[in-house]
Specification:
In chain A, 57% of the residues lie in helices and 5% in strands. Chain A is built from 27 helices and 8 strands. The longest helix of chain A has 29 residues. With 109 residues, chain B is an all-alpha fold. Chain B contains 6 helices and no strands. Chain C folds into 2 domains: 174 residues, FAD/NAD(P)-binding domain (3-Layer(bba) Sandwich); 154 residues, 3-Layer(bba) Sandwich (FAD/NAD(P)-binding domain). Chain C is built from 7 helices and 20 strands. In chain C, the strands form 6 sheets. A 5-stranded parallel beta sheet of chain C has the order 5-2-1-9-20, with helices on one face. The chains are: A mainly alpha (598), B mainly alpha (109), C alpha/beta (336). Chains in contact: A-B, A-C, B-C. At the A-C interface, helix 19 and helix 26 of A face strand 15 of C.
Chain lengths: 598, 109, 336
Amino acid sequence: MTFFAKFCIPFIVGVVVLFAVIAIKYLSWLRNLPKKDWKLIFSNIISWRTVAAAWEVVCESLLHRRIFKVNPRLGYMHMSLAFGWFLLIAVGWIETVAYMGFKWVPLQGHVFFKYFVPLNGITEHKPLFDFVMDLLLLFVLSGVGLAWFKRLRSRALGMKKTTKHVLFDRIALSALWFIFPLRLVAESITAAIYGGGSFLTGGIGILLSKSIGVEALSYTYEPAWWLYSTALGVFFIAMPFSRYMHIFTEIPLIFLRHYQLRPESKEKSYDNFELEACSRCGICIDPCQLQSQLGINDVQSVYFLRDRRYNMLQQKIANNCLMCGRCEQVCPVGINLNTLRLNSRSSMRNIPNEGRYNYLRNVDTSSGEGKVGYFAGCMTLLTPNTLRSMRQIFEAAHEQVWWADKEGGACCGRPLMLSGEVDSARKMIEHNKSLFVKHQIKTLVTSCPICLKVFREEYKLEGIEVLHHSEYILRLIQKGRLKINYQRGATFTYHDPCELGRGSGIYDEPRAVIKAVGELLEPAHNRKEAFCCGSSVANTAINDAQQLTIAGKVATELSETRAKTIVTACPLCKKAITRGTETQVVDLSEIVAQNLKQ
Amino acid sequence: MINFGFAINKPRAIDIDRNNLRKSNEIISEMPELQACIGCGSCTASCTAGNLTEFNFRKVHTLVRRGEYQGAYEEMNKCMLCGKCRLVCPRGINTRGIVMLIKRKLGDF
Amino acid sequence: MKHVIVIGGGIAGMQCASELLRQGVAVTIIEKEQDLGGKIRNWHKLFPTFTPADEVLTAVRHKLKISSNLKVRTGCQATSITAKKVTLSTGEELKCDAAVIATGFTLFDAKIKEEYGYGIYDNVITSADLEQMFNEGNVRLAQGGTPRRVAILHCVGSRDEKVCQRHCSKVCCVTGVKQAIELKQLFPKADIFNFYMDIRMFGPGYEEMYREAQTAYNVHFVRGRISEVSPTFDNRLQIKAEDTLTGRPLKMGVDMLVLLIGMKANAHNTLLSKECQLQMQSSGFMQPKDSFLGNVTSNVGGVFYAGAVTAPKNVGESINEGTAAAHSVIEWLEKR
């Protein structure tokens, strides 16, 4: 039995390079994982998590379930390529076994089996396998066809913008586009000369032999297989350096993620798995408001990950992001886009400086006491209506409150973290934390979702419950400590602040509070899909006019609900949206305070 | 440094002829909106860090624009980047961006 | 007889109408309020001479003689304006030979600048509120009593991109100085602090009045914009600003804060620019045909402007524009 021909060389070289590069990459990434991550892997590897991960690999890497959810046409394209190719390989292997029995066959023997069949004197054909293999090839080709079509007209596949690619991507992409058409040609010619094949390769084979003749075709036989093998070889060599690295990388990523590994506020080796698992599908581009509302086309997550992967990330790209999380919400690979961008900023800007913010020592001017601590937040000091309303609410509920930053305390540290100065932010965190502990509060209420997120995620306040004022107010209502007059005919619409909704998962509480006061009308984009107001502290690149443009678009959508009042639960959102509309914009606490039953 | 037994006082005047305006020009060309400052002091008045220290954003960026860089980086390091100043600036200046830009140009990243 | 429609019955519109009547043209005034007079009805005294506003209004009214050639339509607005026809909000269409737009301006809503606490703290008032208090002879604190310390903040809703008002409203500076003097005349023992960014004394006698406020009345001028207002435990107002001339933050307690609210373009202007092809400036005020030779002329033939509909103006300028617009209308009618 021979399973070698000269045309196999490009394929063999490609496979060797591919697996060598992948092995080198994975080993070095794994070796550099911090000890903490290794501990997580060891403690989780023998558990149900491994099974769950394996199942997710099938659902995501092969079937692309999440892309289907976002965009069915795009999902079909990815699935036909991934799952179809996988089945071609798997069924091809079974086919070999069916013909040869359980014998060792080198890899190229499986891949180019159709070529080696006549060479090894096998004359018998198994129509079932021919049919299945043709069907699978057609399945894959339909995906390739869609991919071609998508390049020409991305809107046809439900995408307004599609990704711009780097050189390796273009090489790999071109090779990939030709692999299956070339396979079709090679197998059809083989069928024309030696018989076999089903409706597709067999059918084309008959057409070819009739129109060109078997003799003329025999000259194209070897070149066709050469081309097919070369396309495979080129693709495999380009693959680990291109976006197609995602095909393999998504698998270890899914396992590591099930073992609870996560990116953190500083870069680490695990990030590589997330970076290279990005397929650059470009689904993150359309939801980006910088793209759709400002026409900025080079900062979206797909480009950020690309630039970071190839070590060409610039500050102006890293800084130009609202970190609203709309892209993270739709990413089919579930990459932690915000955290990765944050730790990139940290690598670029974090300069540990021991002396920094030493002025925070001995500046505690806080006074008063109470079981509930109220941290208004810097921005809330500029929306005194919220402060007044919170005071009225606390009084109505007979709550003893310690006002943490009435005279202007230190910042919560989140804005500094968002700009990447993670170590310096710790100074503020420690300062504020020591105040909370000193005043022995049991509950910490804040009106600012930006503060809320950092209190919950970074402060590690043991024994202190952290609440956003929407949660706190709802709790007071539910416990009967606040009585509210329902206003018949009052209509409200609600803007989900990014840090509160997508950032902290608080969607229902503010809505429940609004419904206690009046009717709630939802805007076109809400909850997980809600727009960002544009004034996010995470973005230091866009200017005032650009912020205003976004605010205007968001405000327009909210006004279109025809609600009399726009409600939000973030001082920054309130300020931003007010700029874009004549409709009254208020904080959640205001509508509660105005309608308290005495 | 050699001690000559006397010291020359730093001149009080801002000497635009002697000051090297290269960095200042770089900063302004990257964010021209800084020139739109009308010196109203809203940023400094609302400043969270300025409430606790002598940090004065308006003064520091004005000095930087005049080519007086000494101490500017250290001063900007007092900023907490909370963003109140950006919210109050009547000229719509991206103040947080300016803080980061000045630190980048005068510091070491 | 030619017929001209004047939209807006403030001082500019009234002056324009009386000039047109004098030239033998029939005039219809469209006024959205129930009475003619416009904003000046709410002012107390006019800068820099402290002439009672009422005196000026009476004089302009007096000139506008009641005659069969004058019709006044109150309580309605113009929704479409051309040289031939004006459509009213009632749906009625009025034929004409020319139209003058003298719809003036809108006062900035100080509630939008939430950090200043208007509508939140009782003793934060606007300059318009203060004029009314002067008129009623009842300048006092919300809780009763006279103010011992008053802060007057310039540029509220002017030169502020955060509220989409880039332009300078021009008259607030001098109004602030005028009101400081008036307050000082009422309460000689009170301290008055004007917080300003630039003092723009553009008219004759204004600078002199500023100097008088400083020296004769001992009004304090602090260069810096107030950033925040908060209540104190004893029900006063705590204000924060930077004293930019010393480069240090400044805090003070005051009994009353007066916000010098700016002039905002009417929302109506957007409608005019959309429906009637009249050009509008980015500030929202209407665009005259030429800054030097066509200040009262619009880009549409037979449609003219008078007063603050094209830019913030003081009372004298508005009256002058009423006269100028009337002359331009006559010229236009003669050419027909």
